[in-house]
Design a protein that fits this description.
alpha/beta, FAD/NAD(P)-binding domain, Enolase-like, domain 1, 3 domains, eight-stranded mixed β-sheet, 12 helices, about 30% helix, about 25% strand
Length: about 450
């Protein structure tokens, strides 16, 4: 077998698959190496199954809303996570099959095993039958990230998001350590699925790095769902005991839980890759440093979470395709990471494109800030307390809209659409002359006329 390739990709997640297929479409001979299931974190144990669980959790709210809209429902509804688990497993297996067929149809060779670099242009793969050496003009590292398991004493015994999505029952008493995407999303869901949830985290508000309005909205929504928030409190130690876990807190306090979720972050998957054989020294968080072209060393490139820059699946996909176009398509290009939309799939969800208010001021922008906060029509009708919050950040000098932030139903769908406008350079005047679509929540983005405050640049 001829094991010489134009491109060898290590990691068959969304980014690696996208890069490999695009390179093959340009005529390159491509192999992709994967040690586990094809599809990666997002498809198999991240974004997709997480959102499927969010859909399940939404029904907890929908039952209450339905009664307010005149429906008579049997009491009490009950969530059977084992049934959800079976359906989720079937769906992720279906998606993995699609990914495998896409690679085959694109003439990308799938090599199943664990890869490591062995000097320039050489990738050694440990397979079930021994080892296999692939020779490559270019090597792409797209190995993603994995949960951090050493952030606190004893936290390695706790479950991660991977484990949560494989549960066949909802634990009664849950502690979540951390306050990022994973912590906030699963706290929101588990509370609606019947768990008693407590969150412990170092910061004053969850979701570090997001706009202050969104952080406050997240905290309020979690508390409204019954989640205990212990801001500024991290366990000193987590201990496994019969039937569950004990969290050792300050002042010699102890709390017992049936289950603990470690949501203290993720770390790039670079261990054992042989990076030193091609002169790559990982950064402080184990990330692969890359330049503007995604080059990590001569003939070695890296994309996605393993570079620890903007850790979102669509970014990895976009980087992979751009790199393939650059190397094999005769069309060098880079991905603009300055306005990447993101969402937090809690209930209700949050979404954002552009910088936070604090970051915009720190970057030298004088701002006009537009905000609105209202109870949406759907909630008002049945007496619900859910609120929608929106914010526009506008550069005072140019009138360009720098950022859109939203907390409320359909926020990810609305903000994704508005991201197109921001990428195109829309101004507040463009928003103002757009005719509203009524009755919608999204119309509020084109109806905010007067700024709530003006902020000078720092």
């Amino acid at each position: 077998m001829d094991d010489r390739y134009d491109l060898v990709t290590i990691g068959a997640g969304s980014g690696g698959v996208a890069a490999s297929r695009r390179a093959a479409a340009h005529g390159a001979k491509v192999a992709i190496v994967e040690a586990g299931r094809v599809g990666g974190t997002c498809v198999l144990r991240g974004c997709v199954p997480k959102k499927l669980l969010m859909y399940a959790a939404q029904f907890g709210d929908a039952f209450a809303e339905a009664r307010g809209y005149g429906w008579v429902l049997p009491e009490p509804p009950r969530f059977a996570m084992d049934r959800w688990q079976q359906a989720k497993s079937a769906e992720t297996a279906r998606l993995e099959g699609i990914y495998r067929r896409l690679l085959e149809a694109s003439c990308v060779t799938l090599v199943e095993g664990r890869a490591r670099l062995d000097g320039p242009g050489r990738v050694v793969v440990a397979t079930g039958d021994g080892t296999r050496t692939l020779l490559a003009r270019h090597v792409l590292v797209a190995t993603g990230g994995a949960p951090v398991r050493d952030s606190l004493p004893g936290i390695g015994q706790a479950a991660t998001s991977d484990d949560l999505l494989d549960l066949d029952h909802v634990p009664a008493r849950v502690a979540i350590v951390g306050s990022g995407y994973i912590a906030v999303e699963f706290a929101s869901m588990l509370a609606r699925l019947g768990a008693s949830v407590a969150m412990y985290y170092r910061a004053e508000q969850p979701l570090r790095g997001f706009d202050a309005m969104l952080r406050g909205a997240a905290a309020a929504a979690l508390q409204a769902a019954g989640v205990e928030l212990h801001a500024g409190v991290l366990p000193r130690r987590i201990a496994r005991v019969a039937g569950g876990f004990v969290l050792e807190l300050g002042d010699e306090r102890l709390r017992e839980f049936d289950w603990v979720l470690n949501a203290t972050g993720r770390r790039p998957n670079t261990a054992g890759l042989g990076l030193e054989t091609v002169g790559i020294t990982p950064g402080a968080r184990s990330e692969i440093p890359v330049d503007a072209t995604l080059r990590a060393a001569d003939g070695v490139w890296a994309i996605g979470d393993v570079t620890d820059r903007v850790n979102l699946t669509p970014v990895a996909i976009a980087e992979g395709r751009a790199l393939a176009d650059t190397l094999f398509g005769g069309a060098p290009r880079a991905v603009d990471l300055s306005r990447v939309a993101s969402a937090v799939f809690m209930l209700p969800p949050l979404a954002s494109v552009g910088s936070s208010e604090d970051d915009a001021v720190a970057a030298g922008h004088a701002l006009k800030v537009f905000e609105t906060d209202f109870r949406p029509m759907k909630a008002a009708f049945w007496g619900g307390e859910e609120r929608t919050r929106m914010k526009l950040l506008v550069d005072a000098a140019s009138d360009r809209v720098l950022a859109v932030h939203m907390a409320g139903s359909d926020a990810p769908e609305i903000v994704q659409s508005l991201a197109v406008a921001l990428t195109a350079g829309a101004t507040k005047a463009d928003f103002d002359r757009t005719v509203a679509m009524h009755p919608t929540a999204a119309e509020e983005f084109v109806l905010m006329r007067e700024p709530v405050r003006r902020l000078p640049a720092r």
